[in-house]
Amino acid sequence: MASWNILIGINGTLPTSAKLMILIISESLEHSTGEVIAWLNYYGFKWFRVNDYHFVKNLKSELLSKKKDFEFFIDGVPINYKDIYSIWYRRIPDVTNNPYIFPSNTDNQDLCHSAYQELRPIFYFFLSILNKKKWLGDPDLSTTNKLHNLKLASELGINIPDTIITSNKAELLNFRKNHKKIIVKPLHAIVKVLFKNTPYRTYTTLISDKWLKHLPDNFFPSLFQKYINKQYEIRTFFINNNFYSMAIFSQADKQTSIDFRNYNYEKPTRRVPYKLPKKFEDKLREFMKLAYLNTGSIDIIRNEKNEYVFLEVNPVGQFGMVSKPCNYYLEQKIANFLNQ
Questions:
Q1: At residue 216, what are phi and psi to the nearest 5 degrees?
Q2: How far apart are the C-alpha atoms of 246 and 241, rounded to whole Å?
Q3: What pTM was computed for the model?
Q4: Which CATH number covers residue 253?
Q5: pLDDT, tens digit only, all 340 positions of the chain
Q6: Contacts of 131 (CB under 8 A, 6+ apart)
Q7: Tally of structural domains, the chain
Q8: Does residue 147 sit within a domain?
């Protein structure tokens, strides 16, 4: 079940190094987040966890004209914004999946949407009170615009794939004629669609003649890019102004060569620690600054000409898949960052 989660550390009889923290995640059982929590416990940092259903069940919030200190009461526990030191923002899920709001068999989309709109002000009001605290991540930038990021990267002199957004088949055919091999990818994020009892995911896909043959003259606006022959992919996690990178040899397997996320569990892809050139890291650092991001996972390709090509950044991207193979202990670094 998707959920909001907030870890809130509370001042008290703690070691002097302990400060108060908030953690917001997308799923209550997210494994990587649980490992960050383990490090918080190891260091003795006290926290309090709030799940999404707390904003629906057992919630009390007072806005009294003569009361200066604002508090949320969650499961009877008062949470005063003055006690909060730092916040780790992860994700906002679709709260209409919450069984405290609707039973699992609810199919009234208008009602679900209305409930979601009613809950958003509560959640964002809670966050707005904390806007002067220390943040890792940003709720307003959790889903950035891929097109804006590509343009920004290009303006900074970072290589990007030749890209077109079109809903016209004739324009697409001309783009393919110029680049020979092209791919289509989601403008926003991967989604799962159930069609005739078969699940489909919107992975990055190579455009084939067969696919084009069945494409109508006009279609839903889509993002197409020149296919880049690669030596390997790079996933780099950014935190505390530092990059922790991993090379992914996805081109060695037909199943993962177009999109690494189409993972081959029977034949795992080789992944190793990687160090990006300092000049390229400096450009990425400037990109993250101009994009107002202090954390995120960046996808890069090193092509056959030894050039680094920026693909996209996910501000709330997974880091465990980089941390474990490369022994970076990113979970520990996140815990330490929140207490610095």
A1: -70, 170
A2: 17
A3: 0.83
A4: 3.30.470.20
A5: 333 444 444 333 334 445 566 655 445 556 787 888 889 889 888 777 666 666 666 566 666 556 556 666 666 777 777 778 888 887 765 555 555 555 555 566 677 777 777 777 877 777 787 888 889 998 888 888 999 999 999 999 999 999 999 999 999 999 999 998 999 998 887 777 777 777 777 778 888 899 899 999 999 999 999 999 889 999 999 999 999 999 998 775 555 555 555 555 566 677 899 999 999 999 999 999 999 999 999 999 999 999 999 999 999 888 998 999 999 999 999 999 988 8
A6: none
A7: 3
A8: no
Identify whether residues 187 and 311 lie together within a single domain. no
Q: Which domain holds residue 193?
A: 162-226
> Strand 86-89 and strand 134-136: pairing?
parallel
Phi, psi (deg, nearest 5) at residue 253:
-130, 125
Q: Is the dihedral of CA 104, 107, 111, 116 positive or negative?
A: positive
Same domain, 253 and 311: yes
Residues 131 and 6 occupy one common structural domain: yes
Residue whose pair of structure tokens reads 């994700």 in the numeric block? 91
